[in-house]
Amino acid sequence: MQISNELRAMIGRRRPGYSLEAPFYRDKEVFDLDMDVIFGRHWIYVGVEPDIPEPGDYFTVPLGRTSVVVVRDDDMTIRAFHNVCRHRGARLCDGDKGSVGNVVCPYHQWTYDLRGNLIHTEHMGEGFDRSQFSLKTVHVGNVAGLLFICLADEPPADFEQMRREMEPYILPHRISDCKIAYEEDLIENGNWKFTMENNRECYHCKANHPELTVSLYEFGFGYQPSPENAEEVHAFRELIEREHARWESCGLPSVELEFLDSRATAFRTERLPLDKAGESQTMNSKVACQKLLGDLTQRNLGGLSFWTQPNSWHHFMSDHIVTFSVLPIDPERTLLRTKWLVHKDAVEGRDYDPKELSEVWHATNKQDGSLVERTQIGSQSAAYQPGPYSPYTEELVEKFMSWYFKRLRTETGQESAIVSPFAASA
């Protein structure tokens, strides 16, 4: 797409190691570029297989002005289509999710099967060729039950590389044998990049997340070393090594894989120990569901974290999974979609309580939403200017921004070899 000279100049002068100039968080031109280059040409995490367990089940994905419907067809294949009738463009499927036999346009009843084929119309004449008016398809990718879509005609091919590398980490938790025990949508009053920046660091966690930090080790997500904490940091690193060895011996890959700014389909994963009881991200750090996932038999399996660019993060414990999808609405509003998964045979009220299961991340999401809104408001001040990231606790924020600007520069013809200021400390 064509962009203004002013935006092209802002992209070119981005200072590594610093937050962005205010228009990147506020301006419609930037948002339109984000929707085209980032959300229009990369793999976007949107949901899980248990969202659509049966034929005809669907869920919708809002992406700015675009809507996509993801559906399971009669052969159990997962498909995705633009949520637009081929007649006169009416929205087809309403709501966040539902179930249909066929997809019927509410306007003039054009009817499509679950493969997107137009199978019924009235009053279109004898020679009307329905085969020319199938729904417009969207690419679907599946990583061990995590569902991704790509709007591009030719999506990044390295998705398959991520899938091969990540499936051994995720498969033991058996997403396909889970059900969604609780889910919520939260509208954050901030730009989607503020949501992602906030997620990619825990600099703010100790002061803002009393529920989340019950089960998180203070040294697990970046910490400035000093003579005062050297012994504790060393002990934590030894704990990680011991637990990685234990988990790997049980068939659970655990060591870090990190490709957050070196690939188009970028990601990071690592299994880390949990504090206190060490079982789950709950208020007492014990399991919230008594029926463990898959064939897992041990409760203290830490937390496997999986981050993808540009819009998701996930936490896998022995008893439940939490997944997060960031979906831009407009320059200053973002949908955060969160799902809590348990074993499909777990019984509510006996094996788990939805409130206990969700209370940590329910509280954390609300706290983060307030922080995002606070930052969005601050970016509107004439006094705002980009500030420096911490090289100890915000390295992953810089990697997110490095990935983001590589994508923008590639698509706008401004490719350059800018080195992260954190490279030496990585």
From TrEMBL:
Which superkingdom, per the lineage? Answer: Bacteria
Query: What's a Pfam family this protein contains?
Result: Rieske
User: In the record, what terms sit under GO molecular function?
Assistant: 2 iron, 2 sulfur cluster binding; iron ion binding; oxidoreductase activity
Cofactors that this protein relies on: Fe cation
UniProt KW keywords: 2Fe-2S, Iron, Iron-sulfur, Metal-binding, Oxidoreductase
Family annotation (PROSITE patterns): RIESKE
Q: Which residues form the Rieske domain?
A: 45-149
What is the name attached to this protein's record?
Answer: Rieske 2Fe-2S family protein
| Organism, scientific name | Hyphomicrobium facile
